[in-house]
Amino acid sequence: MQPALGSQHKYTVVWLHGFTCTGGDYLSMPEYFYHSLSPAGDKIDENGKKIEAKSDGSKKNRKKSEEDEEEEEEFEPWPGIKVVLPCGGMHPIIAYSGEESLGWYNYTTDHDGKKEDEFEQTSFDDNLARIHQLLDEEIAALGGDSRRVLIGGSSQGCAMAVHAALTYKGGPLAGIGGAMGHVLSSTPIPEGWVAEKGCPIFVYIGLADDTMPLSWVEPAWNRLKEAGGDVRLVTEEGVDHGDEVREGAWCRDCVVRAFDLGKAKAVDKPSQSTGKEGKSKNCKKKG
To answer: Looking at the record, which segments are called Disordered (predicted)?
Structure first.
């Protein structure tokens, strides 16, 4: 997704899809990386809490609120932001008796959301090298300014994005984004990373998520926090794994904060959920 027509390339977002999904799934939902044109709604504040819209309780305000809920939220692209949506490879998933699926690495176990799943290293390393090369290319396109590149991902893509950022040999990035995902136990936190390359880490977890539940996902993020990382955790009640409406809201919020595009434009919560899980009918609930 190239910058909006007529705007100069200023920033790049690299976002990694979840297990069984593809980067192309996001092309039908470009608003994930746009900004909302809607007026005030439920916004996420500095502490990761939603800001409720104010009302004096009058009949007029209630009627206006009901009308607002019926309006479809509108979005437009941020000027100057390029979005790169790479795709993982096909793997004969060991945990599923060789059934082929798209992803960033091959699972060897499936603990059904009770703890982190193990994976095969070769597929992981191959894709990691691709992502590092992609970061090199995007930073070069921005004149070598690594602080203008954000890397993030959803579910399995979140784990891969965090690992790629922490093992990247180049300069410090604008930020790291993670939706409904976690830090892998095998992801290193290099000595001096926080002081030399530290960047804000934006994390979004649904409290109804039984694939990546907060009970073991939060301790995984705390490992980064305890090392001095700037981890900013947002949790939301009632949000399950693969909720596409909230994933879109989280992606937009991450872009706003990573590039400091104005707190007042932080994303609104859409008035109605589609009730779908995942970005397409082909996406499964898997980390």
So the answer is: 44-77, 265-287
